[in-house]
């Protein structure tokens, strides 16, 4: 415990004494006396106590307050002040006292998970998890916010909320919290319900977009090294996972593959970050109304080209160079003439040592896979790597004075030879472009020699422009791969979520033009954040006239005006000076100082120092003026453009092309002309040799449409979207006439367009913070002088304290009066209007505090907690009304049902009485019997919803025997079978007493029943075998291959699963692991099938979960199939056309929640058929299962048709029982649809094309090209099933027709013979009446049994053959249990 020694009152002393009693496992002093300030927080006291006692401060400690002897212990929050707690103690307990007095403090260790150590002793110990949101802090200061973030950080909670803003601390270490199961856990959960996570922000943005039908964006900010790029990758990973709906498309794969490609070409290792993004990007993901990704656009901003040729000696060039040089194979090294990294001038750095060579090799393999995912084929990759090698060789070009002294000579010779070979240009033209320049005069052209500095500048400019053009080309083709054709149609509306991953704030030892542009962009984004969080919020409060105390914040608008405002902004002065040939960097600096010497944001330096200082919102930063003008006009020289355009490599000409669309069209035209020339030449040679002539091919070649030209429209669309950051056409023209725009002007234009795009969406903000300056793994030195400066500096320039204050004191929920009335109409009185008085009465009635809401002129303002309370109250009230309505509806329905049943019972009783009284008088019951009958039926109706068979003989056989006077001997049939035989037999009266006595007929019938029983037993054996095989799967998990796009961890062994590696993921519970870890699984799948009733979900659930003994086929699917068969078989394009998207969503929600209440007749038939296809697509494991996918493909590849058919049906027998029955019902449905092809235009092939992707999918979706190759095979497999079942259906229907015709013919013959034959045998003595045999026989014939071998001549029912048979023979032939009969009558596949 701890006792506060307060001999002096705190208000009279600047320090007080605290006595702490440690309760720790290690040996420490019994008591620790501390001298602290009266305002010292608990965190400070713990820190001081740990230093005094020599504790390990990497562990967690808690300070507990003990009040009363034996009382509960209360853990103090780190923001609380212990001295204030002491002042609440009794006066006698405030002075020094022993532990037995009952009032003291305890210092004890805290577990890694946030739990206290042994001996906490009370229930009032609170958890630190309550600080998920910084707005819940009781005291808001920099120290309390810092302490709260530190506590969460050391508990591995790197995410914290500040109301709706997410604060992310970079631990410089991977945490296993990004696996697919976390995406599933945060799916459709409100922000704040679960612990803070970046997936929660992605999920809320996704579902807000769908609910409000508004575009969303996520703005990620923070300085370099704070983890912005990684956060953007996590967001994209989650957004694509949410949109897949159980299956992945090529668009998601392309989006995920674009990230590694852009990072390889645009990221580099710096002093602050090992993977620093040297460009800004905005990724806009477009969605359909259903939430499925339909396309995306990647926009890049201001690539740092100067890093290619110059950087600090401790930093590296772009990642892709090291990937290529270290990871390339020997064949690639020879093909691209690669050297060792240290042999290139552009890669030189001090203490050059690639200690991560093995990681670089792995990254190169992942880069290959990512480039294939975005559509770069092997030849294209080779072209890209060849350009990269040429850029590196450019840096090795050196200059020396020529022998005549008039110019420069380029060398070495081997470098020039290799460079010209890689670029495929003439070596003499290359040397001329690197050493000379042409000056266009009025009448002629003057050739001038470069000086040494000018030559080096031209060489570096060529390398930078070439790399920039390559990067633009990569971004352009990634966007073309992500394009959806519907995006080009203006009439098609779409939703989108944008992710802005802008630069990090940079302050290096030497800051130049690049840092100046980057920091200006951060100023603009920070101003956008202030506008949304502070300015617009407080202006709205003032306009509404509510009580509000303004919160001051640091506005950076003055700094933005200093840099960009016309006409005196620094950018505009720089453009003017760049156009003057006599201007220099020094004159530019003097003009800066002259125009802004009195600006508070501009700090001039001494006269001799070539630099200036800008007062940014993060602090003062010094910029070196050197090369500002040159970098602002850093364009490709016309001589370089002409050289590269003369290249024999088409890819090189494409990079330098001023118009990608025009170059694309010209390339197609040139290829066409080349192909025609080749054909003509080949034709001439063959004609000269006297062989086949090609004169018939020429017209076809010339008139055949070139469909590839249609892609020019999509390419033009992409160029229009990204034109703001592409290299202007005038820069790539060999003879530009107009002065091209400057780099700063291009940058400002692209940045303004970016902010306009972001401004049109609803924003979410993520603040990323570095945990330390040394890039140490999981280290947070919050109380050392160095790191506290770094961390507090980030908190201050992001305005975190002010942000938390306005979020805590502000009102997050705002409704207009009309919106409030519409939303909470159920809670308001019936006569209430949207008047503020009615709204205020409601809020007061609910007991909300006056400080938690305010009513303005037109709006109602609520705190987030009160809004949630209001929403919960609304939900409860709505549910109460729903229960009342359901209660009344059920009562009315049951009453109506009861009256109908009662009326039906009375009608049956009356009809039975009249029938018996007129037809068979001996069977008329007595009055006592009639009373018992009515009494029995009335009692039954009062308890049940259906009527039992009346306890009297109602069969026509008993009536017939009654007419003959043999009612005593006859047996009444207590059940009535309805079949084709009985429906036909209702037309004749005398055919029910027949017997089969002929041995041939009996033999045929016996063979038929025996075959059916054998098929039934075979089906039972196969079903049990398949069931055992299905249950032997790894504890119910359904694994499929899963390509990792962000680093994840195996859920079983804990080791990393690297990017682009393949893992195994359960499609149901999202467990992910290595292939080698499958044998280590010891836990059941959380969605494992059981034998219970189907659950509440009907889409996206395993088939075995949706089936049971009551529902052998999933209920929702059966409803939809029966509805289509009853109403839509004659609809043209039944499964080819799609219904309304809004109606489909409505019906899907209805079938998902309560399918019994769904009325399918209210929706179009195409809406229902669309949901049928969706039901199959959303199955976690497809109907034909991932396990048998390859087997079905191998079966289709067999040469003989009979072999294919046999192999396919053999694999069907291996399906699980639920899948087999569902497939059987689906194929029967498709056969019925195909049968009406004349009306619905849906052939077996058309149905196979539609349903093959739904029921037969590959589990390996990592290679879309491989999956596309299997489309024809899967379609063929499904078509085989439909066609074969269609053939069997046709044959069986034909057999049934023949059987019914034979039966009718036999009946007519029997009728005629019975009329002309005198009976000589007493019928009542027959042991087995002909009715029983005949009805059984016709029932068997009328079902889906195999009728093969049964023809008209094989069943002859003759009245002459009705003789008594041996009863033992009958028992031998027809002896069968009820179970066997039921199985025999069950239809097989």
TrEMBL record:
Domain Phorbol-ester/DAG-type as annotated: residue spans: 1036-1085
One CC-aspect GO term: cytoplasm
GO biological process terms held by the UniProt record: actin filament-based movement; intracellular signal transduction; lamellipodium morphogenesis
Coiled-coil stretches noted in the UniProt entry, renumbered to this chain: none
SMART domains: C1, MYSc, RA, RhoGAP
Residues that hold ATP according to the record: 222-229
Domain Ras-associating: 14-112
Keyword Endoplasmic reticulum applies: no
Localization (cell): Cytoplasm
PROSITE patterns the record matches: MYOSIN_MOTOR, RA, RHOGAP, ZF_DAG_PE_1, ZF_DAG_PE_2
Pfam family, one: C1_1
UniProt GO MF annotations: actin filament binding; ATP binding; ATP hydrolysis activity; GTPase activator activity; metal ion binding; microfilament motor activity
Keywords of this entry: Actin-binding, ATP-binding, Coiled coil, Cytoplasm, Metal-binding, Motor protein, Myosin, Nucleotide-binding, Zinc
Major place of residence: cytoplasm
Annotated ranges, domain Rho-GAP: 1104-1289
Source species, domain of life: Eukaryota
InterPro entries xrefs: C1-like_sf (IPR046349), Kinesin_motor_dom_sf (IPR036961), Myo9 (IPR046987), Myosin_head_motor_dom-like (IPR001609), P-loop_NTPase (IPR027417), PKC_DAG/PE (IPR002219), RA_dom (IPR000159), Rho_GTPase_activation_prot (IPR008936)
Domain Myosin motor: 129-875
Assigned protein family: Belongs to the TRAFAC class myosin-kinesin ATPase superfamily. Myosin family.
Name the record gives this protein: Myosin IXb
């Amino acid at each position: 415990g701890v006792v506060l020694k307060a001999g002096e009152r705190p208000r009279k002393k600047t320090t007080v004494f605290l006595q702490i009693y440690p309760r720790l496992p290690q040996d420490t002093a019994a008591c620790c006396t501390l001298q602290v300030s009266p305002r010292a927080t608990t965190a400070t006291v713990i820190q001081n106590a740990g230093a005094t006692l020599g504790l390990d401060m990497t562990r967690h400690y808690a300070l507990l307050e003990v009040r009363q002897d034996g009382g509960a212990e209360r853990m103090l929050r780190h923001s609380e002040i212990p001295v204030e707690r002491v002042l609440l103690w009794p006066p006698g307990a405030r002075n020094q006292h022993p532990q037995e007095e009952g009032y003291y403090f305890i210092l004890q260790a805290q577990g890694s998970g946030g739990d206290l150590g042994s001996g906490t002793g009370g229930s009032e110990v609170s958890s630190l998890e309550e600080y998920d949101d910084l707005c819940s802090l009781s005291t808001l200061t920099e120290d309390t916010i810092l302490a709260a973030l530190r506590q969460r950080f050391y508990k591995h909670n790197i995410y914290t909320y500040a109301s709706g803003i997410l604060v992310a601390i970079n631990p410089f270490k991977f945490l296993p919290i990004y696996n697919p199961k976390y995406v599933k856990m945060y799916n459709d959960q409100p922000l704040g319900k679960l612990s803070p996570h970046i997936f929660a922000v992605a999920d809320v943005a996704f579902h807000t977009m769908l609910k409000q039908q508004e575009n969303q964006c996520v703005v990620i900010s923070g300085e370099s090294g704070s983890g912005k790029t990684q956060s953007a990758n996590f967001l994209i990973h989650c957004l694509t996972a949410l949109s897949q709906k159980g299956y992945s498309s090529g668009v998601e794969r392309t989006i995920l593959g674009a990230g590694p490609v852009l990072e390889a070409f645009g990221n580099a290792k710096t002093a602050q970050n090992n993977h620093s993004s040297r460009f800004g990007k905005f990724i806009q993901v477009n969605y359909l109304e259903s939430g499925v990704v339909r396309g995306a656009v990647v926009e890049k901003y201001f690539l740092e080209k100067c890093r290619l040729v110059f950087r600090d000696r401790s930093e590296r060039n772009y990642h892709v160079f090291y990937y290529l040089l270290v990871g390339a194979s020997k064949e690639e090294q020879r093909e691209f003439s690669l050297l060792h990294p240290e042999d290139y001038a552009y890669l030189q750095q001090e203490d050059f040592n690639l200690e991560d060579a093995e990681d670089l090799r792995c990254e190169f393999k992942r880069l290959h896979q990512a480039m294939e995912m975005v559509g770069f084929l092997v030849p294209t990759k080779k072209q890209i790597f060849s350009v990269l090698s040429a850029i590196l060789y450019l840096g090795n070009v050196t200059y020396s004075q020529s022998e005549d002294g008039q110019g420069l000579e380029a060398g070495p010779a081997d470098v020039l030879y290799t460079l010209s070979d890689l670029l495929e240009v003439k070596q003499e033209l290359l040397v001329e472009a690197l050493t000379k320049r042409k000056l266009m005069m009025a009448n002629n052209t003057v050739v001038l020699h470069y000086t040494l500095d000018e030559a080096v500048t031209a060489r570096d400019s060529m390398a930078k422009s070439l790399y920039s053009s390559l990067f633009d080309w990569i971004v352009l083709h990634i966007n073309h791969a992500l394009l959806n054709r519907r995006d080009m149609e203006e009439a098609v509306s779409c939703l989108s979520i944008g992710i802005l991953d802008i630069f990090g704030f940079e302050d290096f030892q030497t800051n130049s033009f690049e840092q100046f542009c980057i920091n200006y962009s951060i100023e603009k984004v920070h101003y956008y954040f202030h506008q949304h969080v502070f300015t617009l919020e407080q202006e709205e409060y003032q306009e509404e006239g509510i009580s509000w105390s303004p919160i001051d914040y640091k506005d950076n608008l003055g700094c933005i005006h200093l840099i960009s405002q016309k006409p005196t902004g620094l950018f505009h002065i720089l453009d003017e000076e760049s156009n003057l040939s006599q201007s220099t960097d020094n004159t530019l600096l003097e003009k800066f100082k002259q125009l802004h010497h009195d600006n508070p944001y501009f700090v001039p330096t001494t006269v001799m120092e070539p630099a200036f200082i800008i007062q940014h919102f993060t602090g003062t930063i010094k910029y070196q003026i050197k090369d500002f003008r040159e970098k602002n006009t850093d364009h490709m020289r016309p001589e370089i453009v002409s050289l590269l355009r003369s290249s024999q490599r088409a890819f090189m000409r494409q990079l330098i092309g001023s118009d990608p669309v025009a170059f694309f069209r010209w390339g197609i035209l040139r290829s066409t002309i080349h192909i025609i020339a080749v054909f003509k030449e080949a034709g001439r040679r063959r004609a000269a040799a006297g062989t086949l002539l090609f004169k018939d091919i020429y017209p076809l070649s010339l008139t055949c449409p070139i469909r590839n030209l249609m892609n020019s429209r999509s390419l033009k669309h992409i160029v229009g979207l990204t034109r703001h950051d592409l290299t202007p056409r005038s820069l790539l023209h060999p003879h530009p006439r107009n002065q091209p725009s400057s780099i700063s002007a291009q940058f400002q234009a692209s940045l303004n367009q970016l902010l306009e795009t972001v401004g049109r969406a609803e924003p979410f903000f993520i603040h990323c913070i570095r945990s330390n300056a040394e890039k140490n793994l999981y280290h947070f030195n919050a109380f050392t002088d160095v790191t506290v400066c770094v961390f507090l500096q980030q908190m201050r320039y992001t305005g975190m304290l002010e942000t938390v204050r306005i979020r805590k004191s502000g009102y997050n929920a705002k409704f207009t009066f009309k919106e409030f009335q519409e939303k909470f109409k159920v809670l308001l009185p019936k006569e209430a209007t949207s008047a503020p008085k009615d709204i205020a009465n409601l809020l007061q009635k609910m007991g909300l505090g006056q400080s938690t809401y305010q009513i303005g002129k037109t709006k109602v303002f609520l705190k987030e907690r009160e809004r949630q309370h209001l929403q919960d109250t609304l939900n409860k009230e709505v549910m109460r009304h729903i229960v009342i309505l359901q209660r009344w509806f059920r009562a009315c329905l049951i009453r109506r049902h009861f009256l109908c049943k009662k009326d039906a019972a009375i009608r049956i009783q009356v009809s039975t009485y009249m029938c018996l009284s007129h037809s068979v008088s001996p069977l008329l019951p007595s009055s006592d019997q009639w009373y018992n009958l009515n009494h029995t039926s009335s009692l039954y109706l009062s308890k049940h919803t259906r009527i039992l068979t009346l306890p009297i003989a109602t069969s026509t056989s008993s009536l017939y025997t009654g007419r003959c006077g043999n009612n005593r001997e006859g047996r009444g049939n207590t059940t009535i079978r309805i079949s084709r035989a009985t429906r036909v037999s209702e037309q004749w009266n005398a055919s029910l007493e027949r017997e089969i006595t002929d041995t041939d007929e009996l033999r045929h019938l016996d063979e038929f029943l025996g075959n059916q029983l054998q098929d039934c037993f075979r089906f039972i054996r196969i079903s049990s075998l398949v069931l055992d095989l299905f249950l032997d799967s790894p504890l119910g998990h359904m694994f499929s291959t899963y390509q990792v796009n962000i680093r994840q961890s195996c859920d079983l062994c804990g080791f990393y699963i690297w990017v682009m590696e393949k893992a195994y993921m359960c499609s149901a519970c999202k467990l992910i692991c290595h292939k080698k870890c499958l044998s280590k699984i010891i836990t059941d799948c959380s969605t494992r099938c059981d034998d219970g009733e189907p659950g509440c979900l009907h889409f996206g659930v395993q088939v075995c979960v949706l089936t049971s003994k009551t529902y052998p086929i999933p209920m929702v699917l059966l409803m939809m199939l029966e509805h289509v068969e009853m109403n839509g078989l004659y609809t043209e394009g039944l499964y080819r056309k799609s219904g309304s998207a809004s109606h489909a969503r409505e019906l899907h929600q209805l079938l998902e929640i309560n399918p019994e209440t769904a009325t399918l007749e209210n929706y179009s038939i195409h809406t229902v058929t669309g949901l049928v296809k969706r039901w199959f697509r959303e199955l976690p494991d497809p109907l034909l299962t991932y396990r048998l996918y390859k087997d079905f493909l191998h079966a289709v590849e067999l040469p003989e048709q009979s072999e294919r058919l046999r192999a396919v049906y053999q694999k069907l027998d291996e399906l699980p029982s639920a899948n087999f029955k569902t497939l059987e019902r689906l194929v029967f449905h498709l056969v019925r649809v195909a049968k009406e092809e004349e009306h619905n235009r849906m052939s077996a092939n058309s149905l196979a094309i539609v349903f093959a992707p739904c029921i037969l999918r590959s589990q390996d979706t990592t290679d879309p090209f491989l999956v596309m190759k299997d489309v024809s095979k899967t379609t063929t497999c499904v078509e085989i099933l439909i066609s074969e079942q269609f053939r069997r259906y046709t044959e069986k229907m034909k057999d049934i027709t023949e059987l019914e015709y034979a039966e009718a013919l036999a009946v007519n013959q029997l009728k005629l013979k019975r009329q002309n034959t005198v009976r000589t045998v007493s019928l009542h003595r027959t042991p087995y009446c002909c009715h029983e045999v005949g009805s059984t026989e016709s029932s068997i014939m009328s079902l889906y049994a195999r009728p093969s071998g049964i023809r008209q001549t094989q069943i002859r029912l003759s009245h002459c053959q009705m003789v008594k048979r041996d009863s033992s023979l009958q028992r031998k032939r027809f002896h069968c249990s009820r179970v066997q009969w039921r199985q025999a009558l069950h239809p097989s596949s």
